[in-house]
């Protein structure tokens, strides 16, 4: 029997995203059964364990988010994979979430609901927050919209109470209605608490969207928080695969294109905090609500026309003007999103998924899904199941 590789996981267990990373790593380990894992108990931003500098291990997967961890990792003469966006050690291979894809998904979510005013609430301590801010502002600018930004500073610079006061004033001063993206769910929770304390109506005045889809935090929010689901499980698994390749080749770096990987999010879980159609055109708002409520049926644009007093030409024009897509494209988009969700989270057959997503046949669903994603449904399910 070959000797098991000793691998240290310097990943905190205090938040949902990091635990998702660990689950992905664990799934890889269970298949290979070739690692002995060292997992110190850590919180976000914790200093590295004292034993690391003299540890006789084979590899490390770490969230290198501060200079202390970077200083401890840099001298190690073993393979290391970074799962942080901070890039404290840019020469080390990394696997991270695709923050541009997250921002694009958030922006599209708000546009689908008719918002043309946007805001971002971030935290300057985290590189991934800064990345998401830039990408979200850019998404808005590319379509001709502005985006208000509030970024919390380090508590070394501003006290928590002072920061909360500044954030409160910023929220009160935002033009309404506004679609607000928070850098992660915990920040979104703070925003919602301030809204509740100051009678800012959610989602009617401020629609709030988080990132991480931490079920506990989202359900504790009032109202329950809509949130983007990053592919934490898949990111952790890819990091484990990368580290295994480096250890097998006894090298600390790789010239392969896969040495740096950005993993896109897997979906968006809509709850009450963004459950609104903020469109100033009543007919188009009714059309969007009808699609939202009936896309699982075999509806067509003709069915929408039975419920709104418009000609097809006027409906198409005003729909495109308000939402940037046609009614047919919106029906197709919602159906495909439902297919993705069921492939990831259910044991339904492809025929059952097609039926529950508004497709007349499994074959038609498969063709549409492959055209949209580049992958057949079965392959997508294998790659994303449980992540």
Low-confidence stretches: none
Q: Which percent bin holds the helix content?
A: 40-55%
When the domains are counted, the total is 3
Judging by the overall fold, what is the CATH architecture of the largest domain? 3-Layer(aba) Sandwich
Structural class of the helix and strand makeup?
alpha/beta
Tally of individual helices: 15
**Average pLDDT, all residues:** 90
Indicate the proportion of strand residues: 5-15%
In N-to-C order, the SSE pattern is EHEEHEEHEHEHEHEHEHEEHHHHHHH
Can you list the strand order of the major beta sheet?
A: 7-6-8-9-10-12
How would a crystallographer describe the biggest sheet? Answer: 6 strands, mixed
CATH fold call of the largest domain: Rossmann fold
Rg to the nearest angstrom? 23 Å
Give the termini separation. 32 Å
CATH H-level superfamily title of the largest domain: Response regulator
Keywords: DNA-binding, Transcription, Transcription regulation
Protein name: LacI family transcriptional regulator
GO molecular function, one term: transcription cis-regulatory region binding
Pfam families: HTH_18, PBP1_XylR, Peripla_BP_3
């Amino acid at each position: 029997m070959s000797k098991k590789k000793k691998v240290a996981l310097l990943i905190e267990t205090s938040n949902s995203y990091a635990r998702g990373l660990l689950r992905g790593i664990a799934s890889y380990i269970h298949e290979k059964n070739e690692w002995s894992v060292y997992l110190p108990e850590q919180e976000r931003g914790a200093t590295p364990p004292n034993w690391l500098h003299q540890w006789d291990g084979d590899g490390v997967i770490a969230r290198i988010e501060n200079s202390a961890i970077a200083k401890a990792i840099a001298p190690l003469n073993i393979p290391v994979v970074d799962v942080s966006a901070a890039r404290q050690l840019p020469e080390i291979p990394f696997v991270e979430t695709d923050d541009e894809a997250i921002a694009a998904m958030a922006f599209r979510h708000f546009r689908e609901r008719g918002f043309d005013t946007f805001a971002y609430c971030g935290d300057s301590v985290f590189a991934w927050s800064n990345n998401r801010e830039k990408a979200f502002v850019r998404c808005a600018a590319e379509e001709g919209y502005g985006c208000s930004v509030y970024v919390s500073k380090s508590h070394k610079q501003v006290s928590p109470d002072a920061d909360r006061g500044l954030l409160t004033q910023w929220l009160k001063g935002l033009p309404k209605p506004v679609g607000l993206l928070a850098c992660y769910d915990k920040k979104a929770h703070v925003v919602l608490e301030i809204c509740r304390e100051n009678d800012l109506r959610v989602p009617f005045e401020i629609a709030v969207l988080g990132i991480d889809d931490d079920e506990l935090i989202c359900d504790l929010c009032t109202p329950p928080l809509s949130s983007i689901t990053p592919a934490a499980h898949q990111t952790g698994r890819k990091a484990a695969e990368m580290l295994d390749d480096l250890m097998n080749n006894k090298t600390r770096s790789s010239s392969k294109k896969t040495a740096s990987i950005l993993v896109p999010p897997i979906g968006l879980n809509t709850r009450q905090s963004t459950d609104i159609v903020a469109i100033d055109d009543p007919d188009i708002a009714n059309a969007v609500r009808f699609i939202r409520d009936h896309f699982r049926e075999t509806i067509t644009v003709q069915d929408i026309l039975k419920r709104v007093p418009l000609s097809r030409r006027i409906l198409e024009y005003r729909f495109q003007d308000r939402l940037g897509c046609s009614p047919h494209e919106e029906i197709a988009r919602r159906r495909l999103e439902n297919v993705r969700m069921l492939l990831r989270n259910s044991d339904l057959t492809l025929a059952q998924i097609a039926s529950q997503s508004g497709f007349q046949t499994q074959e038609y669903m498969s063709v549409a899904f492959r055209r949209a994603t580049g992958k057949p449904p079965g392959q997508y399910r294998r790659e994303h199941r449980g992540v």
